[in-house]
């Protein structure tokens, strides 16, 4: 049985919920909790059996390392060593916040946490419930997204229950998360530092501190008529339905998506569309099968809504989800990465 506790009302953190959950965490139980990015599945990072259970509960392969969550900069020396000056500057500027730093690990960090790597990924989440839980537990906490591996990350406690009810001990409910996509992961063990995953901290903000190398996902462009073809990358951050991702000149993308929606409906498919405010009118006839992401002029809103929108369409039983690419700036880079992975690396270019 998974016990669900309300941990936040307005700005008030519920202390009894935190005390109960922190105690469970220390003892090696699994506690899902809200962060500013997505909900995390927490376990005591110093408790090998608890760490093992995280992989089991998520069906996550043991080769995929976990992020260690801290409540203070002072906890850093327990898990990371040889912290470079750049990392210190980034920590001062961005913690607590959606920036994960990959650094050399200490011997306190078990191999299971880092999938055997000599480095450890660390961050301090910017959420009152997460910080209270971590402070009271007093131990570093591994917290991958609280979903079944490769599925869409959870942005509400309901999403966590949909995926993990019965497989974990607690869920702390702190309402919907503010950012909605995962943290930016930055490897600072190399020079220049390398962005391993774009996320909630925009590249532009990091570049004020140092030149960064970006690792882009491979993309397979397709001609206008989409044909089913094998994926180039592992599906990740994905809904159950297959995702068709469109890119090109905005008006042509809209008409390309419309044509494809009609074609698929003609074949008897249940079609879902992730619409931007700008595109919405073109899919009005789809009713609840068209779910709004927000305006392209507010990419932070699109990031916040993205995963919940994918889950909503899955719940409505769609076979295919049509979506458009978004601009690259700010949170757009993270949204593009998640859409691309959900679409298994394929983009339909409409020109
Ligand atoms: P999740 O917690 O599910 O959002 O995913 C954590 C991600 O952080 C992993 O999938 C890796 O991409 C990255 N990560 C964690 N630890 C390391 C590490 N030591 N080196 C490189 N990347 C890491
Ligand atoms: Mg994840």
Work out the strand percent. Answer: 15-25%
Low-confidence stretches: none
Q: Using the CA coordinates, give the radius of gyration.
A: 20 Å
Q: Kindly report how far apart the N and C termini lie.
A: 52 Å
CATH-level-4 superfamily name of the largest domain: DHBP synthase
Per CATH, what is the topology of the largest domain? DHBP synthase
- Please identify, by name, the CATH architecture of the largest domain: Alpha-Beta Complex
CATH class of the largest domain: Alpha Beta
Count of distinct strands: 20
Structural class by sheet pairing and helices:
alpha/beta
Average pLDDT confidence is 95
Q: Ligands in the structure?
A: adenosine monophosphate, magnesium ion
Question: Helix share of residues?
Answer: 25-40%
| Most strands sheet | 12 strands, mixed
Number of helices: 11
Give the overall form: globular
Total domain units: 2
Task: Give a quick rundown of the structure.
The protein is α/β, with parallel strands linked by helices and 351 residues long. The protein contains eleven helices and 20 strands.
Properties at a glance:
31% helix; globular; six-stranded parallel β-sheet; binds magnesium ion; binds adenosine monophosphate; DHBP synthase; single chain; twelve-stranded mixed β-sheet; alpha/beta; 20 strands; 2 domains; Rossmann fold; 351 residues
